[in-house]
Structure formats: C-alpha cells, structure tokens
Amino acid sequence: MILIRRVITLAGISLLLGNMLGCVTAQFGTPIASFRDSISRSGAVVANYLTEMNAFEREIYIDSVFYDPDAKVLAVDSAGKSTPLMGTIFSGPSIKARLDAINLIGAYASRLAELAGSQAPQQFSTNVNALGQSLTNLGQTFQTIATQHQNNPQQTKDSTALSYVGPVSTLVGTLGQMYLTQQRDQAVKIAVDQGAPKVRQILKLLEADMSQVVEPLELTGLYEELSNRVLAYNQRVDKTHDPNHPTPFTQSEREAALTEINSSLSRLDAAAASNPATLVQSMSDAHEALVKYADSSKLPTDFTSLVSALQAFENNVTSVATAVQAIVDLRKGTIK
Amino acid sequence: MQVDTQKLTAVVTACFQASMDGRFSTLQQATFNSLGRHLRMDLLGLLSAQFNDGTAAVDTANQQLAIVSQQVVTMTNNLAIAGQVVQNITTLTGVLDGLLSIAAKIA
C-alpha cells in the first residue's frame, strides 16, 4: 500500500514536472539586469546634458564676447532680452522635473531587475502554501518512514524508503524553483506591461527635449564657437581687412589660436558622434524589446531579439557617454 | 503654434559655415558670423516659445524662414546671391525679434 501511494505520488510529481518543463522558461534575469544598467548609464548621460545646458550657453556667450572686441558683457541686452550670462535655458525646477522622470525610469528598471533576479529560497518559504505543504514535506515523510522501524521494531521495515529521500527532496526543491520562477516571470511580465505606457510617455518627452532643444543649441553653439575663432584668426592675418588693427601673430600666439580652433573642431566632432536624441531612442527601442519579449512565447528567437536590442542599447550608451566625456574634457582643456 | 526651429537651426548653421568660407571676403564672413550669432540668440528664445493659434507674425516668420533656408543652400553653389541672402536674413532677424517681443508679452 505504501509502495502504491509512493508510486502515485511520484507519478504526480513527474507529471507536474513534465508540464512545467513543457513550458518555455523565460530568461528575464540577465537581460533585465542589462536593461537596468544601460538605463542607469544613459540616464546619467541625459541628466548631464540637461544640467550642463545653462553652463554651456554661458560659456558660448563669454566666448563670443571674448572674440568680439566691441562687445559688452550684459545680463540684459539693449532690447531688454536676457542674455545667457544669467539667463537660463532650463530653470532649476524644469531640470529637476526631467531628472526625476529619468530617475523614475531608473527605479522602474531596478525594481524589475530585483524582481527578475530575486533568489528562490526566500520566496520559497513565503510561497510555501502556494506550492503545497504536503509536497514540500514529502522528503521529510520519506525520512520518517525510513526511521520508523528503528524507533518501533514492530513496524514493517521499508528498506528502500531512505533511498528516496535524496532524489525526492531534490525534485521537490527543483519543482519549487520552477514554480517560483514561473510565478516570478509572470510578475515581471505584468510589471513590464503595466509600466510600459508611462515609460513610453516619459521617453517621448525626453526625446523631444533632446532633439528639439538640446541638440539645436549644442550644434549651433559649437558652430558659433568655431566660427568666432576662425574669423578672429582670419581677420588677424588678413592685412586688407583692417589696416590699423592687424597685429602680426607671434609664433606662440598663432600656435595658441590654431590649437583653440582645433579644440573647437574636436568638440564639434564629438557632439556629432553623441546624438542624445538617438540615445533616448535606443532607450525606447530596448524598452519595446523588453515589452515584446515579456508578451512573447519566450522562444529562443524571441530571446535572441531581446539580447540583440539590449546589446545595441549598451553599445549606444557607451558611444555617447564616451563622446560626452570628450566634449567635457575638451572644454576643460584636459585633452587637446 | 511655433516657429520652425528646425529650419532656423539650419540657417544659423549655414551662416556660421559661410563665415568660414574662403570664397567670401573677410567682411562678408564677419557679416555672416554676426547674423549667425543674432539668429542663434533668437533661436534660444524661440525654442520654448508658444504662440496663440493664428498669430500672423508666426506665419510670416515661417514663410521668411522657408525662403531663407532654401537660399542658403543655393548660395553655396551661387555666390552671386550672397548679397540678397544677407538682406533676407537681416529681414528675418527683424521678424524674429518682433516675435520674441510677442512671446515675452504672452509669458
């Protein structure tokens, strides 16, 4: 009788295991951790752009005054308009609101990663009721059966029961892991699906800020900086331009002027290589790939597409972050 | 209702490029630099400016921008029109300055 019950129980476990194995297990942990890390890095890059815009405009303004001997330094011009000297492109609250939005996406990615990467043991104990108390105790039952004869010699000895303890305990543990993995993946899917519309909205707004405000100002500002330097150099060497003004360059002055021009060109090159709107677009692409995967059948091809999108995202973040650092370093003069 | 800042960005960039173009005299280069700087200041103010629907000055500005943005492209292969382009850009700066005054009143 004991043996029959044992066979039935094991058959039930095997059936359950077979059903679970039949489902394709999602592989959320690694890609979501990658998504979280890239979101975090790109968030820092975008935040850097936003916080630097006011300083950037002030720098371009001062540079412009420097190369125009007749220009005055003014907070408000003769037409009553604020100049970038003390004016702001983005006010403090505007920047904070955008940074909060970026942080929100970062927090969303972090919570997803925690959910996807959570370890089974702790959840196992908290979800033990869902798994079924009798199932989790099966290993213990075999242990008890095996030792009953020692405690009570009248009891029929079940000589093979002890052999079941190890495999049954392992199997129960595996089943628990699989059950929890499925529960967890379902929770991740729900979290991804529910968060998606808001993430889309935030990314759309950020992309608009980047492409419609930050990029035009950065591009034209760097062109202005270059133009000012080139013009000043050419006016200095053009003897026909202002016969009273041109003072011949000394060797070191010429070298310094050309170095400045080269530095401006390098910044322009770096800016061209670091399209911040593209970065936000790749954040968006990676997010959409994650949503698509969460809703997919989790086939290997689905997973490959997700990994591919995340890899592209990661590469883009690295590329833009490198270029942004180059722009900052060029401005500080740490590289020429 | 907004000014076409994408076209304005293109015109600003074209002005600065012309200021570094050796086919123009140093005086013309300086003029393009000056116009570029002026337009960029306008761009700075107009990027976040919103106007009421039907504001005629916005339509005028966008029409002028459409003409100038086309001309600066043509100019690279036809230097003879540089004088006309400078005149049109100067007119454009006046229109945009006027728009900024309206934007300041709305704000």
Radius of gyration of chain A: 33 Å
Round the Cα radius of gyration of chain B to an integer and report it. 14 Å
Distance between the termini of chain B: 14 Å
User: Kindly, what is the distance between the CA atoms of the first and last residues of chain A, rounded to a whole number of angstroms?
Assistant: 86 Å
What is the ordering of alpha helices and beta strands of chain A? Answer: HHHHHHHHHHH
Mean residue pLDDT of chain A: 74
Describe the model.
The complex is a heterodimer of chains A (336) and B (107). Chain A is mostly helical. Chain A is built from 11 helices and no strands. Helices cover 79% and strands 0% of the residues of chain A. Chain A is elongated and about 120 Å long. Chain B has 107 residues and is an all-alpha fold. Helix content of chain B is 75%, strand content 0%. Classes of the chains: A mainly alpha (336), B mainly alpha (107). The A-B interface holds A 57, 64, 79-81, 83-84, 89, 212-213, 216-217, 219-221, 223-224, 226-228, 230-231, 234-235, 238, 240-241 and B 5-6, 8-9, 12-13, 16-17, 19-20, 26-27, 29-30, 33, 36-37, 40-41, 43-45, 47-48, 97, 100, 104.
Keywords:
heterodimer; A: 336 residues; mainly alpha; 0% strand; B: 107 residues; 4 helices
Short description:
The complex is a heterodimer of chains A (336) and B (107). Chain A is mainly α and 336 residues long.
What is the topological layout?
The complex is a heterodimer of chains A (336) and B (107).
Chain A: H1 2-22, H2 29-66, H3 92-117, H4 120-126, H5 128-131, H6 133-136, H7 138-151, H8 161-237, H9 251-273, H10 276-295, H11 300-332
Chain B: H1 5-18, H2 26-46, H3 56-75, H4 82-106
